[in-house]
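[User]
If only I could read backbone structure tokens as easily as an amino acid sequence. I have put the entry right below:
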Amino acid sequence: MILIERLPFELDDGIAKRAKIGLIVLATDYTIEHEWRTIFHHLNGVALYQSRILNDDLITAKSLKAMQPRITFCAELFTPGTPVNVVAYGCTSASIAIGEEKVFENIHAAQPTAHCTTPITAAFAAFKAFNANRIGVLTPYPAEVNKIVAKYIADRGVEVPVFGSFNEDRDSNVSRITPDSIEKGVREIIKRASVEAVFVSCTSVRLVEACKELEVSLGVPLTSSNHAMAWHAMRLAGIDDQLPRFGSLFELPLP
């Protein structure tokens, strides 16, 4: 055997020459990674790194809040020794139950220089980008969680004239709600009240691939937890690429 050691090599900027984005995924979420890969596949030089956070499949205020002390550890796992540009915490209802600022505090304990986002943080940014303040909301959550979500949005000055839910309390079931069911739910929302945009909450919900077609059909701006947070993470990282194939939001800058 001929052994050749110390072969010469060169270094470049790797796959993340434009940005490194870290995504914290719920252990029970079977959707967000697929939807984010679908989007980030079109962004050369933007790398996506994921870690998973332990959570309970049963969606309750208590189980959502229980994730808070685990966030820092998950944020440490992306690229040890190398900071990421943005960290996104992938749970809408937990971000509300814990509080956005508390989520950011836990992320910054591990990634002090990173920009931070959550699905609800991104949703508020999307509403501003749409110049919309009357928002129709669709969720899969049980009533206990819906009350928390509706109050959180209203307390921040956003009007919610119609709020619909599938009232499902298992995250693993939410990921199996069909795109057709989501579309019917969204259409029911806009039938019931005049709205300036529609927000579909929960990172387990599948909407990204159908968003543009449905948005055009509705004639109303449309976004979801995964959709808004992917856009927000891109923009926070300084990525201004327009991706109209994913709907009108991906043609807009940060407000």
